[in-house]
Amino acid sequence: MASRKSRPERRQEPLSRERIVAAAVELLDTVGEGGLTFRALAERLATGPGAIYWHVTGKTELLLAAMDAVIAPTLAGDDTGATPQDAIRALALGVFDAIDAHPWVGTTLARLPRTPGKSPMLRVFERIGRQVQALRVPETAQFTAASALLSYILGVAGQNAANTLAARANTDRAAFLDAVAAAWRELDPDQYPFTRDVAGQLREHDDRAEFLAGIDLILAGITAGRADGRTRP
Amino acid sequence: MASRKSRPERRQEPLSRERIVAAAVELLDTVGEGGLTFRALAERLATGPGAIYWHVTGKTELLLAAMDAVIAPTLAGDDTGATPQDAIRALALGVFDAIDAHPWVGTTLARLPRTPGKSPMLRVFERIGRQVQALRVPETAQFTAASALLSYILGVAGQNAANTLAARANTDRAAFLDAVAAAWRELDPDQYPFTRDVAGQLREHDDRAEFLAGIDLILAGITAGRADGRTRP
DNA sequence: ACCTGAACACCGTTCAAGT
DNA sequence: ACCTGAACACCGTTCAAGT
C-alpha cells in the first residue's frame, strides 16, 4: 500500500516516545537500574540528553512507562473458560515471570511516587478484582481480597527481584541460596531458632512454586468456610 | 560512678556509628530518602563527608543500619500468653506502624541488595516463623507459611509507604484518597469495571484495618480445613 | 586512630542556540 | 516542531594531608 524505504537507515529514524521507552527497557535489562542514565540513553539513541526531555517529562515518567511496557503484555491473555482460581494463578504467575525476567520492575515498584490512580499495577488490580467477583466474594470484602492478593504479589516480586539481583552480583542462584542457607545456619540458636530450622528447606526450594503456594493460601482464606458448609452449624 | 562532664559540649562528642545512624534516621524522617546525603549528614554532624566513611562502609550499609534502628525496637515485645494468631497480628501491626511512621523504610526495603542472610527483615521472619510453629503447621509447610506472611507484610508496607509519601506531597491523606477515588471513577468502564466498582470503598477505608484483614485472610488459609473437621468427611 | 575537605567521576535537568 | 550539547547544581566516594 503505502511506499516504504527498503532499507530504513537506523540513524535517521526520528526520536519517539516508543523508541525511547524501548531503549530504556533494553538498558535496564542490560545494565540494571543504575545503568539507566539520560546520557547513556542519549548515546544509544544517537542524540543529546536534552532531546529526550522533549518526549518525556523526566526519569519518573520514563520508569513508569518502562514498567508498563513490560507488565501490560503479560495481561493480554483471555480468562474465559478457566475457574477464577486458575485465572488468578495464571495472572499472578505472569507478573511473577515478568518481574523475574526484568528484576528492576520489582525493585522500582515500591519506590515510585503514586500519581493518583495511574500506575502500571492498576491493570493487575483490575484483573484480579474481576476474578474475585467471579469467586462470588461479598461486595464489601472484594476490595480487601483483591488488595491482599496484589500486596502479596508485589511483596514477593520485590523480594524475588532483590534476590535475583543479589544472585546475579554473586555467582549464580544456586550458589547464592547456598550462601544464604549457610549464613542462616550460623545464626545464634537462641535468637534465630526458626530460621535455623528452615535453612535446610532453602536449598531445594522453588521460588515459583513457593509463590504459587502463597497465592493458594490466600485463595483458601478468601473462600474459607463457605464451600460445603460452615464450621459452626 | 565514673566521672561525667556535667555539660557535655555537643560539638566535641566523638563521631560514632550510633551517632551517624541516629542522624541518618533523623534526616530520612525529616527530608525523606532523597535528603539523606553524605554532605547533609556531615554538616549535621559538624564534619566532612569523608569522616563518615571511617565508621560506615557506604550508603547501603547506612540505610540498612537506619532501617534496623527503626524495625528492631518494634520486635521487643513478649509473645508469651497470646495465641499464635494474636502474636502474628501484633507483630505485623508493629511493622506496619513503624513503616507508616518512617515511610522511607517501606520504599527502601525492596531496593536494597541482599547480603546473604543479613537483613533487618530476618528478625521479622524469625518471629513470624516461631508463631507459625506454634500454630502447629506441618514442618514442610512452615517455610511457605512464614514466607507468605512476610511477603504480604512487605508488599503492603511498600504500597502504604508510597501512598504516604504521595499524600504528603499533595495535601493530606483524605484529599489524596479522594483524588485517587475520583481518578478511578473516571476510568474507562470497559477496561476497568472492577476498579470503578470499588472506588467508593476507598474513601471510608482504613489502611490499618485493611492490612489486618489481609493478615487474617492468610491466617485463615494457613489453618483452613484443620479446625473443627475437614470439608470432605 | 581518627578526622578534614578538596578532588574525581559522575548524576538529572535546563536552556540558549540551532535546524 | 524538534534537536543539540554545554552548563548548572548537585551526587557518592576517595585520598592525601593533617592531628
TrEMBL record, chains A, B:
<dbReference type="Pfam" id="PF02909">
    <property type="entry name" value="TetR_C_1"/>
</dbReference>
<dbReference type="InterPro" id="IPR004111">
    <property type="entry name" value="Repressor_TetR_C"/>
</dbReference>
<feature type="DNA-binding region" description="H-T-H motif">
    <location>
        <begin position="37"/>
        <end position="56"/>
    </location>
</feature>
<keyword id="KW-0805">Transcription regulation</keyword>
<feature type="domain" description="HTH tetR-type">
    <location>
        <begin position="14"/>
        <end position="74"/>
    </location>
</feature>
<dbReference type="InterPro" id="IPR036271">
    <property type="entry name" value="Tet_transcr_reg_TetR-rel_C_sf"/>
</dbReference>
<keyword id="KW-0678">Repressor</keyword>
<dbReference type="InterPro" id="IPR003012">
    <property type="entry name" value="Tet_transcr_reg_TetR"/>
</dbReference>
<dbReference type="InterPro" id="IPR050109">
    <property type="entry name" value="HTH-type_TetR-like_transc_reg"/>
</dbReference>
<dbReference type="Pfam" id="PF00440">
    <property type="entry name" value="TetR_N"/>
</dbReference>
<dbReference type="InterPro" id="IPR009057">
    <property type="entry name" value="Homeodomain-like_sf"/>
</dbReference>
<protein>
    <submittedName>
        <fullName>TetR/AcrR family transcriptional regulator</fullName>
    </submittedName>
</protein>
<keyword id="KW-0238">DNA-binding</keyword>
<keyword id="KW-0804">Transcription</keyword>
<dbReference type="InterPro" id="IPR001647">
    <property type="entry name" value="HTH_TetR"/>
</dbReference>
